[in-house]
Amino acid sequence: MNRFKGTGSYILSDSLKEIVNAAIVLGRPLLLKGEPGTGKTELAQVIAEDLGLGLIRWNIKSTTKATEGLYVYDTVQRLNDSRFHDKDVSDIRQYIRFGRLGEALRSEEQVVLLIDEIDKADLEFPNDLLYELDQMQFDVVETGDHFSARHRPIVMITSNSEKELPDAFLRRCLFHYIEFPDPEMMERIARVHYPDLERKLVAQVVARFYQVRERRDLKKRPSTSELLDWIQAIVAGGIGERELVRRLPFLGVLLKTEEDLASVTR
Amino acid sequence: MFINLFRALRRHGIPATFNEWMLLQQALGENLADSSLTRFYHLARAILVKTEGHFDRFDQAFLECFGHIDSSDELIARIEERLARLPPLELTEEEKRLVEELDLEEVRGRFLDRLRNQDDEEHVGGNQAIGVKGRSPFGAWGYNPAGVRIGQGVSRHRRAVQIAEKRSFRNYRDDVALDTRAIKTVLGYMRQVVREGPKESLDVEGTVRATCRNAGELEFVWERARRKRIKLMLLMDAGGTMTAHAELVSRLFSAARDLVKNLKFYYFHNCVYQELYTDIARMTPVATRKVLEQTPRDTRVILVGDAYMAPSELLHPNGAIDFWYRNDRPGIEWLGDIRKRFRKVLWLNPEPREWWPSVPTTRMIGGLFPMHELTLEGMRHGTRALMKQ
After folding, report:
1. Residues of chain B in Cβ contact (below 8 Å) with chain A
2. Answer CATH for A14-178 from 2.30.30.60, 3.40.640.10, 3.40.50.300, 3.40.50.2300
3. pLDDT class for B186, splitting at 50, 70, 90?
4. Which end of chain A has the least Cβ crowding within 10 Å, N or C?
């Protein structure tokens, strides 16, 4: 079996790499949690690229229903067609629209399925998926068709823990909490995104970033993406590492609320 | 395998199940841990623990089971420590010459052999075992130019036991410390979805039914969209003993304000009397009775306070801590009114639960309101009860 090795552009810890491989070998969904900006969503993309598989992304909203992920029977379209007699409405199959999960299970090749932000949905949502994720098969009740995955999709699930997930669902997953990168790892991440930048400057920016981030009175702590934007701003502004020691330019890129800005500049 | 870890986890309150345990066994069978304790640590945690709030407990349980196990680095450190405690050896010139005849390769091979055979006792002065002050070529502070020095290696790899010892997830524990994000997470459970507003989304099921009733003539049925809504009132103690918790309370407040649109908040000073305050610095008062009357009954009410005061403040008319403040009714009656008015109330107390029984007023108020600690776990339990219909 193919092992996930990680790619150059996405820096991840060894432990996460091992757990991704464990999830693939054991055929279990991997539930990822962590602060915003720790790359939960990107991981699925990277796995797909690394293993040369397709990625199917299912973005969950508060109104998403589990059955929609499998398929939707477009009754309204069918009713409408029946009114104008322009199609043969006796063939129900043409009104079955497969959802993201349905697509993943019907796929001829193995795919990576990303269920993004599962906590956005209704409390019962994860429980409604238990059978399909366990057995990797589903029925279309209206037509009696049965679909069973030829290759178990690699399932990645992300959560921002807005809601607690049901225990029965959790028991079937592997779980990993992506910690916020430490300065050393952050420097590596920054260098991957800005390979031409001087090491000293990157180190200085990262050090200053953590000084801001570690403040306890912040309402919203800046994350990786804000740091990367900040670096871009600093490069564009032609600011050197010496100047960074004296002041914090473009703070608005890092801090998004007025209160935070005020408390840091004070 | 490692059933003691499973037991320790259960003992530390991690709800790992037998099925998860079997999955770990399967993973070990697939050689996913690759005989490495560090990998085993991560693998076991991923399979058995499903919230970062329990990671610290996992670390503790892991230490209990594997803390005494030495990986090679640790073994070296221990040997070194033991060697350092013992006095150095002095040899005669003749003895030195004898010892010099050994060559390094041979020594290394024999070192490993002997390390395997040696028991764990401290060893001084022998010619065979690894220790100090000996003529054996292994150890430290002994005399042998071809000897193997033990204890200079610096660990380059983070080892499982060390990771567990660091207990870096202590801050994620759900029975301690709260930051704004954590509070938001918990308060997030209070977001309730209800249908309200104009009818603007298509009810497919209803449309099908209505159309069928209509003999195939299409008839659309619309329904109200689902909106998040909860009414919440926060009553916060800003009294003297609460100063220590001011930052915590302000975090709770800012999290609540971000999450709940329909939020009312008032302050009180040690105990609730006939007036609540909208601004504690300026002491802008509103009549408690008016607040009670104008706040709908289905509003969830959270009181935050240490419930720590002189009994007279709670039980006597004119008992308020502020000397100039006159209250005809004792605080406990006002609190009773709040309890009676709202179906769902909760008291969050920033003091640790162990202290409550020793404070009379905390006991009394705890009898009136369901009281929980102002910690993640306390809030989770509390808000869950608060959200029950």
Report:
1. 15, 17, 19-20, 23, 26-27, 30, 32, 38-39, 42-43, 45-47, 49-52, 55, 168-169, 172, 180-181, 185, 188-189, 191, 193, 202, 204, 207-208, 211, 216-218, 226, 228, 254, 380
2. 3.40.50.300
3. low
4. C
